[in-house]
Amino acid sequence: MPTELEELVGFIAHPNPSIRKLAAENLVPYSTENPSIFKTEDLTPVKHLKFLIRDIPEIAEHAITILINLTGDPRVLEFVANDDRFVGILLGLLVDPKEPNANLLAMLLANMAKHDGLKSLVTRTQPAPEGLGSHELVLNQLLDLFVRGADGSYNKHASYDYLAYVLADLSKHPEIRQFFLAEQAYDGVVPLNKIKVFTEHKSDIRRKGVASTIKNVAFDVPAHPAFLDEDKVNILPYILLPITGNEEYPEDEMMSMLPDLQLLPPDKQRDSDPTIIQTHVETLTLLATTREGRDLMRNVNVYPIIRETHLRVDDDGVREACERLVNVLMADEPDENADEEDDNRVVEV
Known about the structure:
Elements: H1 4-10, H2 17-27, H3 30-33, H4 44-52, H5 57-70, H6 74-81, H7 84-94, H8 102-112, H9 138-149, H10 163-170, H11 174-181, H12 191-195, H13 204-217, H14 224-228, H15 236-240, H16 251-254, H17 274-287, H18 291-299, H19 303-312, H20 316-330
Helix pairs in contact: 1-2, 2-5, 4-5, 5-8, 7-8, 8-10, 10-13, 13-17, 17-20, 19-20
């Protein structure tokens, strides 16, 4: 005989919307406290919840919230992320400029992006809404939503901040790293250049996701010249500014730094999140994989910034990352005629 909770779960499929709404609303807390009630009958309740994301906004809100909580379970995640039709429905709703639950949908997609199967988005297309000014490739639409969401100019209900986590998880896949580095024909912009400007955004979600995305794409060593080229990606200022505080440097040190790092205002603050600082330092270490990268960082005097970061950020992870980078930058270089095979190998940090 089913328990009262199990009966309540059954009501999320009731034909009466008032009953569905009441059931979904009351079940939200149980999606974290007692998630097993949604995993009965071969995940039939989860199947019903997937239908409800297109229900009236009040019901859809609760259904999406429950799915966000449940997709922390690998079994539920696989069940949801492998449903191609459901993925298409979610993406269609996400790009709707009037979708009231767009931020929740972005959170759900962020969970789903942890599933390796979502790398199929690299080739997935759907019609682009006219007002978005994007392209049929879903990845381009996600990027353009993310950019437009920063000022709320596309959907008044959504900031799309959680798409930063979607992009970060997707960028773990080599084929999607290639997308981030390829100029897009529809707007002539390299996707990485669209997101690098958010490394100092007020949203810690944006900053964290963008920092991780940049780091993941930096595992593509052949792309490092483009990363460092002032006329292409020019990534160094966007990595160094977030880890720089209001320290005063001797004039000889400061004048060798990048122009963006010179004469910063006295109220300049480095990022408040040590994990983001650590990620940026690790990206610098990846970019120091090649002789070109190391030489550039020495020429623009990256070392004093790392020295001050190591001194002022009370976090073991940050300090260890700084020490690894300093060891690379301060090491003697081998003879230029020596075998440079090591320059083309990246070890994950």
